[in-house]
Design goal:
By secondary structure, this protein is of the alpha/beta class. It has helices at residues 47-54, 77-87, 103-112, 123-133, 149-161, 179-194, 206-209, 235-251; strands at residues 5-16, 19-31, 36-40, 62-67, 70-71, 88-92, 167-171, 198-202, 214-219, 222-228.
Amino acid sequence: MVPVIQLVDFRKSYITGEVEVQAVRGVTLTINPGEFVAIMGSSGSGKSTLMNTIGCLDRPTGGKYLLDGIDVGSLNRDELADLRNQKIGFVFQGFNLLARTTALENVELPMLYRRGGQRFNNARERAMKSLERVGLGKRTDHTPSQLSGGQQQRVAIARALVNEPTLLLADEPTGNLDSRTSIEIMDIFQELNAAGMTLVMVTHELDIASYSTRMVVMRDGKVVTDRPVEQRLNAKEELARLTQEQAAVKLA
């Protein structure tokens, strides 16, 4: 089995003025197909730098990064962009939707950036199916301002899935959402994972990380903990429990 992500002695440093800042220091990490991994750490731990590299938005200073068996460090800028577009779907904390564009058009965007004549003839149909997959089949003509925060994040997830990526990367996907909506997003992620999708999620919330299958904790640019989630939360069960609690409060 070829790992989706393979980092070998990965290092990343930045030059700030005359000072070299070592953001990530010799991380070796393997993530196999079908895993749901949460990366945790405080500010400055290196988790965002690690995520940027996994997402092919940055290159390692040292070591090696293989994405689905491809050596990312050997690619030029255009090849890196193509790999990112074809292999990775991104979900961000701030949704990053175009404000005056409908949900359907937002989801179509990644297909418009495919180079080399690889654009899909059925882009609208694929976008529609992607929105239906996240429960927004009846909101396709709504702009972001007409959608709730949870619905906007669902559009962002649909956009991330439309190119059928190997890997879904989520950077603080529940950071702008309330508790119930956060669990609803985790329910989507767990369904995707159950269907075989590989997910990597950065979060600072321990309860959100508990919906994953594996937790990686970083500190000072190094991995200090890498272990399976022993008491994994089930999003559907948590939503049912929350509904019961809210009903009990109304009856009281």
